[in-house]
Specification:
Layout: H1 2-29, H2 31-46, E1 49-58, E2 66-76, E3 81-92, H3 94-98, E4 101-118, E5 143-160, E6 165-181, E7 184-200, E8 203-221, E9 227-236, E10 239-250, E11 253-265, H4 266-270, E12 282-283, E13 289-300, E14 307-320, E15 328-338, E16 349-355
Parallel strand pairs: 4-5
Antiparallel strand pairs: 1-2, 2-3, 3-4, 5-6, 6-7, 7-8, 8-9, 9-10, 10-11, 11-13, 12-14, 13-14, 14-15, 15-16
């Protein structure tokens, strides 16, 4: 009886210990392969060069899935660093990973930074470079699906030194999903953060404004490079903005279509802006409304601006101030502000269509 018990215990030990040993051996054997696959994928998708300080790869922590952790990641183009991540944690589907299908069941980015800057000579960093579509899927290409992408404490910086444009965004947290649909990368979800500053033509327009993006649907065509924001809205305090844009590579620039619309209390909308007109007017009616629609369309490159216009509508407003001899009550004003024939600040003009 004791002999049988010993045999049974031995069998149980073998059954439990052998898979653990096997997984440990596999994690060591495939460590360099996983490392090479990951480096090759990111270099191919982001058109850059990647390095990282530390890399861990394990079957054991979340079996039957694969757990990856990378620290101090740096992505560079030919001249400079364009992105870095303090810590990247990834949970992969084991079977699909080895079949060139990257099914990510969890991805967390902490302390990330992205810098896309066009310098004074028109040189710019390249990321999400377009690819030529082949007659079939490349045997080395990875198809991506990712659930629950979390981004924490990360920053985005966009700049054009020629035009004097700079934008700084802080992402407090986000939750996104990434899906591959043939040639498209489809990103959807929500995020919360802050617009630290938005500077146009060396003039600060916005600064330190909390923002939330909700129900966002954004696509990137991996072959043509076309990017489209299809759905979603942005909350800035009580103002709800609905942005839509399409951007497609063309010659040495982009063909762009941008539309942003929103409506809220007059004073709440104006309080978001940093610039001042120099006109000493105060709006005193708390029921006043301001409706805006910003549109931009045309060709843009590091040196050229597209045509831009802002349609606005003010209702139920009352203005006072030193520049007025008496209070001015306005039932409605419709107008347009645009950058004129030269598509520049020098040719901008203000038009008032109706006033009553």
């Amino acid at each position: 009886m004791r002999k049988k018990a010993k045999i049974l215990i031995s069998l149980l030990v073998v059954l439990f210990i052998t898979p653990v040993i096997l997984l440990f051996v596999l994690s060591k054997v495939h460590h360099q392969t996983a490392h090479d696959e990951l480096v090759d994928f990111i270099n191919r998708e982001f058109d850059g060069k990647i390095t990282f300080k530390d890399f861990s790869f394990s079957y054991l922590n979340h079996f039957p899935r694969v757990h990856l952790n990378l620290q101090d990641i740096s992505i560079k183009d030919d001249t400079k660093e364009i992105a870095k991540i303090g810590n990247l944690d990834i949970l992969l589907n084991l079977k699909r990973f080895w079949k060139k299908r990257l099914n990510i069941e969890g991805l967390t980015v902490n302390d990330g930074e992205l810098h896309l800057i066009t310098d004074s000579l028109g040189h710019k960093a390249h990321i999400f470079g377009s690819k030529k579509k082949s007659s079939g899927s490349s045997p080395g290409a990875l198809l991506i699906n990712a659930n629950i992408i979390r981004i924490h404490n990360s920053r985005l910086h966009f700049a054009n030194e020629i035009k004097g444009n700079r934008s700084f965004f802080y992402i407090k947290e986000s939750q996104l999903d990434l899906i591959t649909q043939d040639s498209l990368l489809l990103l959807k979800g929500s995020l919360e953060g802050r617009l630290d500053s938005l500077i146009s033509n060396n003039t600060t327009l916005f600064k330190g404004q909390p923002v939330e993006g909700r129900e966002v649907v954004f696509t990137i065509n991996r072959y043509s490079g076309e990017k489209i924001l299809k759905e979603g809205y942005v909350m800035a305090h009580t103002l709800r903005l609905e942005p839509r844009f399409k951007m497609k590579p063309h010659e040495d620039g982009q063909l762009i279509e941008l539309h942003i619309s929103g409506e809220d209390n007059f004073d709440d909308v104006l309080s978001l802006f940093e610039f001042h007109t120099g006109i000493n007017l105060i709006q005193v009616n708390p029921e006043a409304k301001l409706k805006i629609s910003y549109n931009q369309k045309g060709f843009v490159n590091p040196f050229l601006r597209p045509y831009s216009e802002l349609d606005f509508e003010i209702s139920n407003a009352e203005f006072t101030g030193e520049d007025l001899p008496f209070p001015l009550k306005v039932g409605g004003i419709k107008g347009n502000y645009n950058n004129g024939e030269g598509h520049s600040p020098e040719t901008s003009e203000l038009q008032i269509d109706t006033i009553h």
